[in-house]
Amino acid sequence: MELKVHDTIKNQTSKFAIQELDYYLNKLLGMKVSENTEADLTLEVVYQADANDHFTLSLNKGKGKLTANSDVALLIGIYRLFSELGVVYTRPGRENEYLPELSYQTWQNLALELDETASYKHRGVCIEGADSFENVRDFIAWLPKIGMNSFFIQFENPYSFFKRWYEHEFNPYSPKEPFNNEIAQKMSDQIDQELTLRGLVHHRVGHGWTGEVLGYSSKYGWESGLTLPPEKKPYVAQLNGKRELFETAPILTSLDFANPEVGEIMVEKIVDYAKKRPDVDYLHVWLSDARNNICECEKCQQELVADQYIRILNLLDERLSAEGLSTKICFLLYHELLFAPQKEKLKDPKRFTLMFAPITRTFEMSYADVDYEHGIPAPKPYVRNQITLPNSLEENLAYLFEWQKSFTGDSFVYDYPLGRAHYGDLGYMKISRVIYRDIKYLSKLHLNGYISCQELRAGFPHNFPNYVMGQMLWNKEQTYEVLKERYFKALYGEKWANVVAYLEKLSSYSSCDHFNAIGDRADHELAARYAVAANLAEEFVSVIEEALPQVVGMQNQNWRKLAYHREYVVKLADALHLLANGQTRAAQNKWRDVLNFIRNNEQAFQAELDVYRVIEVAKNYAGFKL
């Protein structure tokens, strides 16, 4: 049994798409694929720049044509074909895919007409947390399977994220593994190949350009403990009469943008990078990753940092154009840059993509819940080095709408549901529904997509939040209940509804915001809810014990992950109960039990829970100590 395929494109992605076609046909139907111009199936790409990804697939009795408008859309079309046949891509990694039992007659009798255009142009994820090479590779492979088209590698390479994993920061139970610059660069090069192979849109860098001006490489991320050379002091922001690295970290240090040399050096660095990296589609040009550190010299005090930023971006556009470079530039609405410019405008809007980053927003509600007619306040006036970032969606959106008065070009939201807040959602169901409702509403905010700044190891106990994210960015008209049934039925089998009911209760008795430092640490009503969550997890053990002998393979593994998660919830909910009850010392003792538990078990559940990151968030935001 053979399927003859005619590849009219003949590039890396089309060849890879045929390999994927062969893999799934063989797994599902025992079929093989061969290339032949007298084909049963023809693959074609008619490229359309700056258009939302689109494909058409026509099959009748296993014969037909797949046409796409981009390489990644072609690959998405292949995966959508197998979704129609019942495959569910539940988590990163082939071992986590639900493959139904089919017969060859299924293919012979197949009549399928798909004509699909992505609801949004930008559909991706940005790397965070502590990651192995395999974590990143498998996540990238998963992206087009769930409808996504983009991956964003912060900094020059993923050194910071690899280092956290291979040196096992925050986990003394795991010995350090060999790691250095050379290893990181080799892994980074391989990751770039994985992106190219799939035709994924490549985003890069972000924070780090301010450090580059001072002679520090962006690859080292949030490194600190450094001393500024005297010759670099004129470039650094003046704070309280001094010019030093902010908290000894280049990435946190703002610059003196009134000094004309600063802009020139920064633009030169960025253009040089763009020339060396034509594979980067969207180059992110951000300022420092700290707030209330803006230069206080006399000249800088005369204008907003956003006006200085826009002037540098316009200069960058001129230099890129002079070099004949078409690289898109993403500019950032974040920290002081939430405050829109008062004087300057981007001269060539087509070069730029606006990125709205409401990092301190609540995840207890969605953009869809906002009263847009009466609830949006006027943006607060800017007071240099005295800003407080907003938690409310209304205030965050006020800043976005102010920027949109002067920029109406391409844009997306850079959001954080799986960056910190998800650790507070013990069932991952509340955050899933917020993601669903947020994405459905994005077009009404005049935003053309979503990139999630998040841990890649965010599957504890399931990866439904990311699944919903990808599915909705591809088709925002999908129904939440349909997505939920398809996903969890594949993940857990016949008793999926019992699991979902349990997970939804866990979510309702926990708080995304509390774990993410929004609201008082002491909250007696929330403390009572955490106690209920712990009891729910205690009682669910009987359901798990009954289900495990009845499931095999991938589903059996997911019930085992659920069993581990159940123990984690009991311990963490107990600690959070005490914390919210104001019993800080007792809460810390319980938190030590959580630390011991997750550190000891990290290797067994490495892909599901980012132990480094949950510890970092717990100590920096939730209120626990390391």
Question: Would you mind describing this structure in some detail?
Answer:
It is built from 20 helices and 16 strands. The protein has 626 residues and is an alpha/beta fold. Among the domains are: 2-117, Chitobiase, domain 2, CATH 3.30.379; 201-349 and 376-409, no CATH class. Strands 9-10-11-12-13-14-15-16 form an eight-stranded parallel barrel. A six-stranded mixed sheet has the order 2-1-3-5-4-8, covered by helices on one side. The protein has a two-stranded antiparallel ribbon with strand order 6-7. Helix 16 (524-539) runs antiparallel to helix 18. The longest helix is centred in the C-terminal third of the chain and has 28 residues, at 553-580. It is globular.
Number of helices, counting only DSSP H or I runs of 4 residues or more: 20
Helix vs. strand class: alpha/beta
Largest beta sheet: strand ordering: 9-10-11-12-13-14-15-16
Q: Mind describing the biggest β-sheet?
A: 8 strands, parallel, barrel
The total count of strands amounts to: 16
Regions with little confidence, pLDDT below 50 for 5+ residues: none
Helicity level? 40-55%
Shape: globular
**Estimated share of beta-strand residues:** 5-15%
In round numbers, the mean pLDDT is 96
Distance between the termini: 59 Å
Round the Cα radius of gyration to an integer and report it. 25 Å
